Amino acid sequence: QVQLVESGGGLVQPGGSLRLSCAASGSIFSIAAMGWYRQAPGKQREWVATIFSGGITNYADSVKGRFTISRDNAKNTVYLQMNSLKPEDTALYYCNDGAYWGQGTQVTVSS
């Protein structure tokens, strides 16, 4: 059974940084395209970034230049480095392997 577990969220001031992690088990992680999504209160879940098995990455315009997605296939883990955080980045962040979702990790950007 596939399990995705996110961690690394928290409260940070505007302009700060956080690094999210998503540990995968039970999936063929090394060949899966892994994505990060987020959902703010009262809004629909939105795509943030994707990394393909070969390392190619794509980003939503709203985070381009501030967020970096990466993966460690040896650890079955995908990361999201978030810099220059803004209040509008506040959301529950989820990872996805194309079929399964984790439980999410909360990111709150506030002074």
Report on the architecture of this protein.
This protein is mainly β. It has strands at 3-7, 10-12, 18-25, 34-39, 46-51, 57-59, 67-72, 77-82, 91-96, 105-109. The chain has no helices and 10 strands. The N and C termini lie far apart (40 Å). The strands form 2 sheets. The chain has a 6-stranded mixed beta sheet, with no helix packed on it. A 4-stranded antiparallel beta sheet has the order 1-3-8-7, with no helix packed on it. The model has no long low-confidence stretch (mean pLDDT 94).
Question: What's the SSE blueprint?
Answer:
Blueprint: E1 3-7, E2 10-12, E3 18-25, E4 34-39, E5 46-51, E6 57-59, E7 67-72, E8 77-82, E9 91-96, E10 105-109
Parallel strand pairs: 2-10
Antiparallel strand pairs: 1-3, 3-8, 4-5, 4-9, 5-6, 7-8, 9-10
Question: What characteristics describe this protein?
Answer:
single chain; 111 residues; mainly beta; six-stranded mixed β-sheet
Provide the residue-averaged pLDDT: 94
Strand content: over 45%
Shape: globular
Poorly predicted regions: none
List the strand order in the largest sheet: 2-10-9-4-5-6
Rg value? 13 Å
The profile of the biggest β sheet is: 6 strands, mixed
Category by helix and strand content: mainly beta
Tally of helical runs: 0
Order of helices and strands: EEEEEEEEEE
State the share of residues found in helices, binned by percent: under 10%
Tell how many strands the DSSP assignment holds.
10
CA-to-CA gap between the ends?
40 Å
